[in-house]
């Protein structure tokens, strides 16, 4: 647990992210004994809310989205730590008062941690206010994704941040990097002699990073219309996972060394080619409340990208994510090249799904890894069939003890460890890589809710096939 006392200020405290992830996540950390010995959590947003009302909202959020009921001593203690102070950049006084009260309650000089769970346009004014009021002092700041909406806005945001904060105080959060099984990609690759030797263009024919979701936009029309799936999921979560899958061995897991390596991956990515991107929109999206009836915002993206370096040259990386699809999954699939000589006749039904071996990493909590291969079916003839070796987190470890992505990262921020946070140069490079697509997006193609996106996704990946939905 962090040893420094903390005042955590949650901007966007009345919003969706605070309700779904941040307040339940903070309560989980409290129950696990992973908050500092003395802490206070100050909620803030534009609207005026009383402390009691904020506590009620937090309790409802934990009841709906948390892993433990908001009852008993643990809840009582946590609820006691909550207070609220509204803030608008021009009217920060209620927040200043709430922070001062929280600090007096703790005593001494607690560290301030600001979590900016606000839409992208709210970042700069909030940071300006933190600078002007002197709150920024010894603080750290967690900035939510998407970090900017293109290269110019990300650069402007970095400039604005650096007028108030030193880079060592800045924690750009991408909660996929806090997921146990994404972190485990580093262990899988660099702690074992079994996998890394084949982790390159000599053995791998293609990669897939597939994150279909069943949820729609869940009433977030305002956010989603301005953002779309490319900015919400691809340029952030999927590219960051790609960074872990594709990086060279870092010399250590320290923040500089790890982020140097992911940044090198992003530097090796050629600009996204808009002809290698399928943008989709689920039928019915335009009827959602708050969505423009002629909206061209995409709720689905599939893209083919490359990493042009010695390890990956010529290996396509296929990425896919979308709302209202057939299944919720978070999967990386490494398709292995065929052996030099096929001496077995393959059952034609296997030829398509399993003509190659696959290493599959399912990184949705609690996660699993499977090596899929061909094996001889028992019997007098040499008949091959599908087989798998599977490691399941839930079978081997206490997954109750696992921290969710946000929990792990908020804890790391309190400890001052930036390793799993994104860095300005890497993020800016990803916006540069995305520039041609943002400037020239192909038209959105409709798809049916519950499907796997527009038909064009199959042409995009040919001659390979999407591992999902038929892979297990
Ligand atoms: C968020 C996106 O960052 O990630 C959401 O804004 C998406 O649109 C979510 O649904 C997926 O995250 P998780 O925690 O469900 O894996």
UniProtKB/TrEMBL annotation:
Residues bound to substrate: 175, 179, 213, 232, 323
Domain Glucose-6-phosphate dehydrogenase C-terminal: 186-464
Domain Glucose-6-phosphate dehydrogenase NAD-binding: 9-184
InterPro entries hit by this protein: G6P_DH, G6P_DH_AS, G6P_DH_C, G6P_DH_NAD-bd, NAD(P)-bd_dom_sf
Substrates-to-products reaction catalysed: D-glucose 6-phosphate + NADP(+) = 6-phospho-D-glucono-1,5-lactone + NADPH + H(+)
Keywords of this entry: Carbohydrate metabolism, Glucose metabolism, NADP, Oxidoreductase
Residues of the active site: 237 (proton acceptor)
Keyword match Oxidoreductase: yes
Pfam families reported in the protein's UniProt record: G6PD_C, G6PD_N
Keyword field contains Cell division: no
EC class of the enzyme, as a word: oxidoreductase
The protein's annotated pathway: Carbohydrate degradation; pentose phosphate pathway; D-ribulose 5-phosphate from D-glucose 6-phosphate (oxidative stage): step 1/3
EC number(s) stated in the UniProt entry for this protein: 1.1.1.49
Binding, NADP(+): 12-19, 46, 145
Protein family membership: Belongs to the glucose-6-phosphate dehydrogenase family.
Function: Catalyzes the oxidation of glucose 6-phosphate to 6-phosphogluconolactone.
Protein name: Glucose-6-phosphate 1-dehydrogenase
Native organism: Dactylosporangium maewongense
Chain's gene name: zwf_4
């Amino acid at each position: 647990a962090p040893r420094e006392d903390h005042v955590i200020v949650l901007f966007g405290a009345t919003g969706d992210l605070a309700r779904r992830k941040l307040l339940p996540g903070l309560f989980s950390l409290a129950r696990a004994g992973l908050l500092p010995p003395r802490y206070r959590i100050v909620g803030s947003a534009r609207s005026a809310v009383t402390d009691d009302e904020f506590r009620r909202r937090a309790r409802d959020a934990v009841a709906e989205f948390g892993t433990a009921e908001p009852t008993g001593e643990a809840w009582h203690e946590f609820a006691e730590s909550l207070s609220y102070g509204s803030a608008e950049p021009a009217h920060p006084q209620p927040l200043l008062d709430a922070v001062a009260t929280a600090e007096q309650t703790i005593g001494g000089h607690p560290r301030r941690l600001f979590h900016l769970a606000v839409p992208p346009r709210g970042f700069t004014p909030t940071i300006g206010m933190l600078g002007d009021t002197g709150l920024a002092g010894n603080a750290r700041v967690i900035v939510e994704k998407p970090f900017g909406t293109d290269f110019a806005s990300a650069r402007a945001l970095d400039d604005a941040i650096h007028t108030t904060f030193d880079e060592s105080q800045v924690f750009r959060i991408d909660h996929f990097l806090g997921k146990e099984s994404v972190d485990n990609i580093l262990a899988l690759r660099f702690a074992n002699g079994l996998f890394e030797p084949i982790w390159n263009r000599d053995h791998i024919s293609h990669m897939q990073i597939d994150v279909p979701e069943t949820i729609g936009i869940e009433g977030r029309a305002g956010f989603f219309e301005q953002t779309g799936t490319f900015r919400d999921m691809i340029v952030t979560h999927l590219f960051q996972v790609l960074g872990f899958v594709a990086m060279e061995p870092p010399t250590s897991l320290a923040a500089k060394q790890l982020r140097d390596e992911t940044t090198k991956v992003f530097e090796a990515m050629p600009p996204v080619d808009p002809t290698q991107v399928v943008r989709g929109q689920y039928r019915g999206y335009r009827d959602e409340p708050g969505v423009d009836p002629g909206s061209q915002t995409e709720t689905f993206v599939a893209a083919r990208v490359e990493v042009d370096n010695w390890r990956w040259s010529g290996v396509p990386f296929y990425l896919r994510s979308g709302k209202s699809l057939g299944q919720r999954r978070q999967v990386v699939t490494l398709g292995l090249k065929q052996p030099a000589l096929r001496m077995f006749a393959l059952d034609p039904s296997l030829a398509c799904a399993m003509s190659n071996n696959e290493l599959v990493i399912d990184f949705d909590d609690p996660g699993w890894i499977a090596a899929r291969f061909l094996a001889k079916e028992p019997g007098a003839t040499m008949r091959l069939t599908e087989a798998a070796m599977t490691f399941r987190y839930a079978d081997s470890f206490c997954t109750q003890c696992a921290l969710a992505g946000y929990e792990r990262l908020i804890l790391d921020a309190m400890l001052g460890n930036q390793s799993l946070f994104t860095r300005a140069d890497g993020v800016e490079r990803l916006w540069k890589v995305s520039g041609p697509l943002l400037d020239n997006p192909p038209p959105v193609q409709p798809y049916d809710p519950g499907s796997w996106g527009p038909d064009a996704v199959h042409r995009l990946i040919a001659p390979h096939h999407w591992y999902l939905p038929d892979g297990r």
